[in-house]
Amino acid sequence: MTKNCIIITYDIQDNKLRSHVSKFLLKHGVRLQFSVFEIVNSPRVIDLIYK
């Protein structure tokens, strides 16, 4: 079985917002680099990201 993943990258200057985004992404995926995350594709997670 293969898993569908989404790669998310960001470049956020505001420290507070960057920290918030990073913590959110760590709950739902794996950090690949400092601002690059791999998220397993699921409808629930995608809905959370777009909100």
Number of domains: 1
Question: Topology as H/E string?
Answer: EHEEH
Q: What would you call the shape?
A: globular
Question: What integer value in Å does the Rg equal?
Answer: 11 Å
Rounded mean pLDDT score:
87
Low-confidence stretches: none
Q: Main sheet?
A: 3 strands, antiparallel
Tell me the helix content. 40-55%
Structural class, by secondary structure, is alpha+beta
Spatial order of the strands forming the largest sheet: 1-3-2
* DSSP strand content: 25-35%
- Cα distance spanning the termini: 29 Å
User: How many strands?
Assistant: 3
Instruction: Determine the number of helices (DSSP H or I, runs of at least 4 residues).
Output: 2
Describe the structure.
The longest helix is centred in the middle third of the chain and has 14 residues, at 15-28. The mean pLDDT is 87. It is globular, with a radius of gyration of 11 Å. The protein has 51 residues and is of the alpha+beta class. A three-stranded antiparallel beta sheet has the order 1-3-2. It has two helices and three strands. It has helices spanning 15-28, 43-50, and strands spanning 5-9, 29-33, 36-40.
Observed structural traits:
globular, alpha+beta, three-stranded antiparallel beta sheet, 51 residues, single chain
Topology of helices and strands:
Layout: E1 5-9, H1 15-28, E2 29-33, E3 36-40, H2 43-50
Antiparallel strand pairs: 1-3, 2-3
